[in-house]
């Protein structure tokens, strides 16, 4: 899981619940869409706070950046039913979030032009909704982002897969997830938290974690819906390789639309997917490849300055 470097959002960040056609989602929202809007999906056991250090630099670069707690995560919550967390349901959530952000951007655009047009109802795309959304998914969030694009690439201006690989996670992480799946039916969330801390990979160890961050991560874990953890853990263990399918979906071949730009970004080491796997995936996708030196599985939290610059540079390059 990502460990936020701090918790108090910069003054430019707005925390609220974003209304969509599929319910409300807790978000951190920063910036205005001068150059575009980005939707940021966190990974397994993660939350919007995983991107907290990226929001201000992305806003300064001209992008509206919106980080979200997905269904079943932290402050969004969700049903106590495993069917609610299928790949189809989570992909539909991402599409609904993108649509809601497009509608917000339409209102901002109209307001900038002196209009006071009301926000159109969900499902009604205004004539100005050509402002598509840059989609980024970290780790599990990357698999969900991939599903959303495979379902409908129309709302998206680009796709960034951050520390998210082509198929199932590494053998060591599969072992960890299987232990979690065995524990969920018989242990409390608190008992699992204590046990999982003992199994953290060496890369995750950091005795300098501020007490408030450590307490937040504990609180966040307890707030996750168990059924969400169960379904997404099973997915990380058994995810098929869909890279060729995605490559076909983002390609311009046989379509009257331009290719959808793709960015594969990671740290220089990764315990969930080996970096050479990510290199190969980028080649298969014809994607821009960025390696953030000195970062591990969470460059968003570990090297936010370099990561934000890489993201903004990529997004800017897609609008030329």
TrEMBL record:
GO molecular function terms here? hydrolase activity
Which key words tag this protein in UniProt? Hydrolase
- Keyword S-adenosyl-L-methionine, does the record have it? no
Residue ranges of the AB hydrolase-1 domain?
A: 39-310
Extract the Pfam families matched here: Abhydrolase_6
Instruction: Say which domain of life the source belongs to.
Output: Bacteria
User: Where does the record place the region Disordered?
Assistant: 107-130
Q: Please state what the protein is called.
A: Alpha/beta fold hydrolase
Q: Which organism is it from?
A: Streptomyces ovatisporus
């Amino acid at each position: 899981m990502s460990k936020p470097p701090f918790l108090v959002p910069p003054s430019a960040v707005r925390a609220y619940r974003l209304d969509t056609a599929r319910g409300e989602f807790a978000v951190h929202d920063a910036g205005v869409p001068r150059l575009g809007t980005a939707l940021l999906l966190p990974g397994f056991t993660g939350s919007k706070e995983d991107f907290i250090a990226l929001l201000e630099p992305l806003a300064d670069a001209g992008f509206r950046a919106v980080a979200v707690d997905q269904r079943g995560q932290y402050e969004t919550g969700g049903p106590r039913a495993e069917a609610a967390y299928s790949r189809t349901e989570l992909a539909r959530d991402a599409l609904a979030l993108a649509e809601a952000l497009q509608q917000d951007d339409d209102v901002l655009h109209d307001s900038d032009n002196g209009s006071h047009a009301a926000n159109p109802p969900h499902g009604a795309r205004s004539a100005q909704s050509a402002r598509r959304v840059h989609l980024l998914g970290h780790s599990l969030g990357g698999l969900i982002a991939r599903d959303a694009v495979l379902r409908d690439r129309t709302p998206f201006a680009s796709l960034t897969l951050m520390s998210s690989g082509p198929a199932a996670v590494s053998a060591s992480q599969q072992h960890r997830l299987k232990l979690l799946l065995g524990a969920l039916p018989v242990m409390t969330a608190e008992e699992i938290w204590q046990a999982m801390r003992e199994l953290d990979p060496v890369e995750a160890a950091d005795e300098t974690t501020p007490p408030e961050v450590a307490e937040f991560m504990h609180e966040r874990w307890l707030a996750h819906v168990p059924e969400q953890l169960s379904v997404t853990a099973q997915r990380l263990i058994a995810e098929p390789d869909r890279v060729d399918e995605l490559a076909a979906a983002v390609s311009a071949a046989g379509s009257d639309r331009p290719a959808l730009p793709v960015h594969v970004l990671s740290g220089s080491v990764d315990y969930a997917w080996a970096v050479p796997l990510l290199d190969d995936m980028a080649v298969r996708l014809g994607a821009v490849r960025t390696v953030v030196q000195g970062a591990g599985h969470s460059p968003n939290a570990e090297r936010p300055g370099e990561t934000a610059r890489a993201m903004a540079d990529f997004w800017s390059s897609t609008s030329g």
